[in-house]
Amino acid sequence: FPGPASTLEINGPIQKIDDTTWTLGYKDAQPGINGNEALHTVAVYSSSYEGDVSIQTTLENQVTNQTNWATISTLSFTGEETMPVSVNFNGVYSYIRVIATTDPSDKITKILLRN
Hints:
globular, 9 strands, 3% helix, mainly beta, single chain
């Protein structure tokens, strides 16, 4: 039997995309090992964060400023969460990134990804 999949941390630098969007980084979605029914889990750990966090994916081979991203799921935070908020989704993608609608500095403490 195979062991559990490794967990990756999305920990890129927080960058402002525009007046209402920040990116928190991206990771390789490992399309070569995931086959046709890849299951992905993203868990967001926060501390008093209020706003939305969106999980986005792309099929492109590399990430540039012109990369086309599609939103897979959006998580809403009230600032009162005491447990991680997670989402599961299926699909074979090249990269997965996380974006936020309000400044996440010091309020989103960790983002974990399991492919």
